[in-house]
Amino acid sequence: MFFPRLPRTFTRKFHKAENKRERTIQGNFLIAVPSGSQITENYPKRVSLGEVLVDAGALRILAPVNGVATLTEGGTHFQIKQDGVWKTSSPYQNRSYSFTEVLEKFVEDALASLDFPDLSLLKLFSSFSPQDHFKIVISPFTRYNHLSFDEMIQSEMKEPLDQFLLLLKSTFPNAEILSHIDSGKINYSHPLGIPEFFIHKITGESIPSVNEGIRNNKILFLGPETIYHILRSLYYNEPFTRRHLSVCLVDKRGRMDTESRQFLLTNGQSLDFIRQNNDKRYKIASFQSMFDSVNALDINSLGNFDIYEHYLLLLYERLPVIRNEFACIDCNECNTYCPTTANPFALVKKRWEDFEKQSCIECGICTVYCPSGIDIRSRILEAKKG
């Protein structure tokens, strides 16, 4: 998989004195300190790649590079100035793990479930016992399928994937493994990347039943991006300090250019290079998809890459139009396009009791297709809170 060249401040130069190691020109990294975290170390201090900066309970944050770390005024961010040599070549290592060793590795490399927000892989896997009977569902799609991780895994990490599947079988002998990482066999369409909807489609179980299975440890779901980082950790000894960011352009007519623009970025890295290397017509940015409520940003205010939050970036030629709401015309388009028959039309008509909130997956399709510009998404969130 080709990744566009990074700007000069992050250009890597081969360092002959180090065998297969490279020196990176100095870069500055800024990482937010999670709210409520207790900082026990004294700063400034020198840190190494993979060293724990803070253990936030649910998630651990690691130093993304070798350098000197300081705390900003008020202790809101770690600022790291990179000044050392780092390893950029990680060979595949065929090795075996016990279940305990797998969990220890998840902790050491700060792996998170990239399918469920703010959930560590330690907490996810620890919910299941080797003696349990349950389903392990491995999906080929991320939530918005912003990058073909299934293709990357099949082409570049096939042997590690086979090793991991054998590890799952030996660790959970009573589990039924449903692996669909076989690139191209299932065509993607939104919302197949949403975990509960994908499981619903391949098993035939209802959305409420799937959600109950996930909550009650009857289903272990693993998306391809999560699998990608598990393989990098277990078989390449790579901590979770980098993640892919996919960049898509949306022109002034609202048409999306999905040409491949993927970057493998380091946590805390400045995103200024996107502005510097992008077509100047695209001045508005959003980290949300077109199916989400857009929080528009000036392209000059992208800030720094957050490995837990950022994976998709849309650049707009002009600010996405905020449509005025008009009266419902009873077209029933919201119900026609709803993939789960949750009956969002009932919310428009204020028949709250007729909305099947247990079946709604908040995919955003009803809002996108409403010709009257009704913000059905807000009504769904309100109904689910009630």
Question: What's the topology here?
Answer:
Layout: E1 12-14, E2 22-24, E3 28-32, E4 45-47, E5 52-55, E6 60-62, E7 67-71, E8 77-82, E9 85-86, H1 99-108, E10 112-113, E11 119-120, H2 121-126, E12 135-138, H3 149-156, H4 158-171, E13 176-179, H5 195-203, H6 207-215, E14 219-222, H7 224-236, E15 242-250, E16 256-257, E17 262-266, H8 272-276, E18 284-286, E19 297-298, E20 312-316, H9 333-337, H10 345-348, H11 365-369, H12 376-385
Parallel strand pairs: 12-13, 12-14, 15-20
Antiparallel strand pairs: 1-2, 2-9, 3-8, 4-7, 5-6, 7-8, 10-11, 15-16, 15-17, 18-19, 18-20
Description:
With 386 residues, this protein is an alpha+beta fold. The protein has helices spanning 99-108, 121-126, 149-156, 158-171, 195-203, 207-215, 224-236, 272-276, 333-337, 345-348, 365-369, 376-385, and strands at 12-14, 22-24, 28-32, 45-47, 52-55, 60-62, 67-71, 77-82, 85-86, 112-113, 119-120, 135-138, 176-179, 219-222, 242-250, 256-257, 262-266, 284-286, 297-298, 312-316. Strands 15, 16, 17, 18, 19 and 20 form a six-stranded mixed beta sheet that branches. Strands 3-8-7-4 form a four-stranded antiparallel beta sheet, with no helix packed on it. Strands 1-2-9 form a three-stranded antiparallel beta sheet, with no helix packed on it. The termini are far apart.
**Unreliable stretches covering 5 or more consecutive residues:** 1-25
Radius of gyration: 22 Å
Structural class: alpha+beta
Report the span from N to C terminus.
46 Å
Helical content class: 25-40%
**SS summary, helix count:** 12
Report the count of strand segments. 20
Instruction: State mean pLDDT (0 to 100 scale).
Output: 87
Beta-strand fraction estimate: 15-25%
